[in-house]
Structure prediction request, 539 residues.
Amino acid sequence: MLLRADQVSKSYRKPGRWLKPEQTTVLKGVSLTIQQGECVGLVGESGSGKSTLGRLLMGIEKPDSGTVYFRNHLVNSTGYQQVRQQMSVVFQDYGTSVNRRYRVKSILEEPLKIANKMASKDFQSHNIRLLETVGLSEKFMDRYPHELSGGQLQRVCIARAIANQPDLVILDEAISSLDVTIQLQILDLLVKLRKEMKLSYFFITHDLLAVTYLCDRVLFMKEGEIIEEVGDMKALDQVAHPYARTLLEAAMKVTGVTWNNHIQKIS
Amino acid sequence: MIRKLLKDKVALVSMTIIFITVLLGIFAPVVAPNDPMETRIIQKYASPDREFPLGTDHLGRCQLSRLLHGIRPTIFLSLLTTVCTITLGGLVGMIAGYSKGWLDEIIMRAVDVMLSFPSQVMVLAVVGMLGVGMRNVVIATIAIKWAWYARMIRSCVKRHTHQNYVNYAKAVGASQSFIIINHLIPAVLSEIVMLASLDMGWVMISISTLSFLGLGIQPPAPEWGAMLSEAKNALMTHPTQMLGPGIALVLVVSSFNMLGDSLRDALDPKEG
Prediction:
């Protein structure tokens, strides 16, 4: 088992209340597992707590209660630093995901420097290989983030995410701020990378269509709880929970096809 | 960044002015035509001529020599003050911004208190307590200004720690020191450089103001503010006396301000 979360809860203090703090509960005891090589989608509307869950899995924040294990190591325990380098992340907002003072090559080198596993003379060839993998040419190497388009920059972010051969990549709304044609390109890239590198994805999104394109399994989340889990994408139209149905019907309305047709078309 | 700065004409001019002024200040004893302290009471308020290129003041001292020697206290003390203020304020701001929680609250409430006093009045109060003199003026200015920097730098650190690229570094296991050295310090530093060059002008004026009021540099030592103060006594009879130190101050202070503006543009990778 690659990643296991057990009953994680998280609440935040409402801002601005200094003397009388008020809590908002964002996650109410969420459990999930991700197997090696699996791609799990997490669907929910904004504010449902899915990005918070992502941050807890990454270990950027600590859960109030519950545990997260990655490769059988408790996240953020002592000695976890080595293990966590096998996890990576791509954020929604590519503009702030990279330090805008860095050139593309420094962006790509950052995870290597953190992991400290590669001699710096090998960086150059490694960078070229990474850029080629995500479909960018070598000439982007010396550019600054603001000289790239959104799609290109998100490709750079993906390249950075796979730079130190992770097992799990958390995609936190990774395609949501791109336009539709670019979304499809990035999804294709993700599918390709997954095959080549045997990656696992945890794909956080509000776009059910993208989930069907990429994932093996999908979790529906509402108000901090996982309300339904669908293990087989072909059975997606069997979802029972009214909220999941609403999402599904909304997605179907967009495509104008029945769900099964859609599944067949992409698979 | 430097290339961008060199392309900017305003930056180039202001840097040249500052550079020349600093050079003149360093080599003042060599460059100055006369001894700035030597009084010639018969030749007081002399018009500019070959011996005294800018004339003499009310004690017959050479104006140009005094201006040149005045660069040292004016610019170098401002520089010292600015550097100390930034180091102190930056350190406190970094600690507050990075630590969060109760430490942050305590530091920021202290800063709030400091900032709620009008700064010149506070300087006067501190100088009043510690006594007149240049050292006390510098201490007073540092004591007032650090709070301002602490707040700016804290907000800068806070803004950057919430950015996704810091989140990413944390997620892939970067240590605290890696994040601070590689992301936070460069980000904060460019902001500091800009603030500092904008603030240099303020500090110079502040030091000159205090000297003008007779609290800073004591006569007969030459300092621009003190020179203005002496010239003020002869405002009616010899108004040209104020021109030398006045123009010099305006020139250097505005150079620093313009340089600050240009630096801000140059340090922003999105611009130009």
About this structure: Chain A has a mean pLDDT of 81. The longest helix of chain A spans residues 180-197. The first strand of chain A starts at residue 3 and ends at 13.
